[in-house]
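Q: Got a minute? One more chain.
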Amino acid sequence: MAQERDNNRPGGDRQRSNDRDRNKEASRMGPDSDLKEKVVAINRVAKVVKGGRRFSFSAIVVVGDGNGTVGYGLGKANEVIDAIAKGIDDAKKNLVKVPMYKHTVPHVMEGRYGGGFVLVQPAAAGTGVIAGGAMRAVFESAGIKDVLAKSKGSSNPHNVVKATFAALAKMRDPLQIAQARGISLSRVFNG
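A: Always. Here it is, folded:
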């Protein structure tokens, strides 16, 4: 009976519709709202057609929350802004959790992707991010504050970013290792 009165009241359906829209927007903004994006590289591609050249753009973008979650994406479009927006959407679909220990990486790791080859090492507190352009964007987005990294292979930003993600994905969390071995966290690092 009360439900019938709500439906008969003017604006009853409108209120439910507004609530639905608000919930939809909240779910859309929820986990992604604290992600910060960094554009690593923008590439202009020219296609030669009958009337001249047709330009399009590709952008590789890294997003992260600064607390161990980071992702990368590639966007292609006829306009730079559209390419970046597509890259951000793609990056939000490819988020990964990176293990960290005292604002640095837990151990030394190498990553490879195509011609890209990177070496990532933990650093003492206060060292800062010592890494090249494409790797720096990944580390800063992930929230890693102290790290030593060297790109030894290709300087192509696509391969460097993917090699950096490969290295971070292979890293193991020190807490999980300590629990698996049944020892304290300090013994994992100091023997």
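A: The longest helix spans residues 12-29.
Q: Perfect, thanks.
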